[in-house]
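STRUCTURE:
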């Protein structure tokens, strides 16, 4: 009996040690946790990256991230910015928490909250568009914030209006908004180089208006306002996105943090419809706001030198709800079980592990800017898409969805997608429904 007691005690102690080693509150492990940098480009489709097959824009810094990490070919988001940001930040499909455009319901928990509570220093720099209350960035878990469109909607490019910790600042001496924002993001990295940090960098580029950058031949340091726009400047704006990605990466390298930092780059929705890009030898029109690949298929590139193998191309299906689960697993953060997260961590895929969970389908509940409550709902895999009314399409052969398929033509796929739709029939919480109704009537 005494030997059994000793053995049980040893097992219990060993289990406790293992659990603590991976726990989010283990002080001894905090210094070993990776830094996380999440870069989100605005209105930036899959076709904009040279590494993906884009032919019109030079993106050497983003391409280098892909060379040093993993480039995803089947990553999907929502067709507009706020819906995607809500999914990205909470790990939940919009059916569970989306109210109206430009808002994130205060009841939600974001990756800012989870990383802050786990001992990370958290910062957000760039586009907000999630509500005007002064306390919202801190409420959603961010220690430091330097934002555009937090309390108002001023110009974002030449001579911008920005908010520093909620304080409104109007720049009038030829400053460029994206440069200011990148500078604050780099200062955050510098200030927190000795502690684990989570940096969320939602760029204001490349959203319209399409205007010159400081590198453009017709840059005008005296320009004020957003009334001028010309699609010809999209190329210059894309190259400035790449420039700022390079500046962030260089800051990490200069501080000796490369092997301690996981960097993710992605787009929030398809490129604006005014933009025509040469992509894989053909003309490709941006599809922002559309429920097809041109509106929802965006780049995803992940770099973590020394931890993940370089030059990998991942063809598995992934979507914006997966990001929170992935970075949380990378950081050893346990997400609360009471929240029905929809994301599937692809961190094991980054590590090259066999027999890891791979997404079989991606669900879409999309309201966008419609306050009426008229949502669009469907579920898709890499080849098929199914709507609640039973309409079933081959996404590859029938991109315009003109020829519905019979369920028996791809029975296994149809049944899989129908089961996925059934999972979300009653997923919309009553408190979110009420909040949406109130907002729609305002």
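SEQUENCE:
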């Amino acid at each position: 009996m005494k030997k059994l007691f000793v053995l049980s005690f040893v097992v219990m102690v060993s289990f406790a040690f293992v659990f603590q080693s991976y726990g989010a509150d283990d002080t001894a492990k905090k210094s070993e946790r990776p830094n996380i940098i999440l870069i989100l480009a605005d209105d930036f489709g899959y076709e904009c990256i040279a590494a993906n097959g884009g032919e019109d824009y030079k993106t050497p810094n983003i391409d280098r991230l892909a060379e040093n990490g993993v480039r995803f070919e089947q990553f999907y988001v929502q067709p507009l910015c706020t819906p995607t940001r809500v999914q990205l930040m909470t790990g939940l499909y919009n059916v569970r928490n989306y109210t109206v455009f430009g808002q994130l319901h205060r009841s939600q928990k974001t990756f800012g909250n989870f990383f802050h509570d786990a001992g990370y220093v958290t910062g957000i720099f760039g586009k907000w568009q999630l509500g005007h209350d002064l306390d919202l960035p801190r409420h959603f878990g961010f220690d430091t914030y330097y934002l555009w469109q937090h309390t108002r909607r001023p110009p974002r490019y030449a001579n911008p209006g920005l908010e520093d910790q909620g304080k409104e600042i109007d720049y009038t001496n030829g400053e460029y908004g994206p440069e200011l924002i990148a500078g604050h993001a780099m200062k955050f990295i510098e200030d927190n180089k000795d502690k684990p940090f989570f940096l969320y960098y939602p760029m204001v580029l490349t959203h319209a208006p399409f205007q010159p950058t400081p590198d453009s031949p017709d840059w005008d340091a005296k320009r004020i306002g957003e009334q001028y726009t010309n699609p010809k400047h999209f190329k210059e704006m894309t190259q400035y996105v790449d420039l700022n990605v390079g500046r962030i990466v260089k800051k990490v390298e200069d501080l000796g943090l490369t092997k301690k930092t996981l960097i993710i780059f992605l787009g929030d929705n398809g490129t604006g419809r005014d933009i025509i890009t040469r992509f894989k030898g053909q003309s490709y029109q941006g599809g922002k706001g559309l429920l097809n690949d041109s509106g929802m298929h965006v780049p995803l590139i992940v770099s973590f030198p020394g931890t993940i193998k370089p030059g990998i191309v991942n063809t598995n299906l992934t979507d914006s709800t997966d990001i929170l689960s992935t970075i949380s697993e990378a950081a050893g953060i346990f997400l609360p079980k009471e929240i029905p997260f929809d994301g599937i961590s692809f961190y094991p895929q980054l590590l090259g592990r066999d027999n890891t969970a791979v997404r079989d389908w991606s669900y879409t509940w999309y309201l966008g800017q419609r306050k009426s409550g008229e949502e669009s709902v469907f579920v898709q895999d890499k080849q098929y898409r199914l709507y609640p009314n039973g309409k079933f399409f081959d996404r590859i052969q029938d991109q315009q969805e003109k020829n519905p398929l019979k369920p028996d033509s791809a029975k296994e796929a149809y049944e899989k997608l129908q089961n996925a739709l059934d999972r979300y029939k009653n997923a919309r919480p009553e408190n979110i429904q009420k909040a949406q109704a109130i907002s729609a009537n305002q």
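REMARK: Confidence is low (pLDDT under 50) at residues 1-28.
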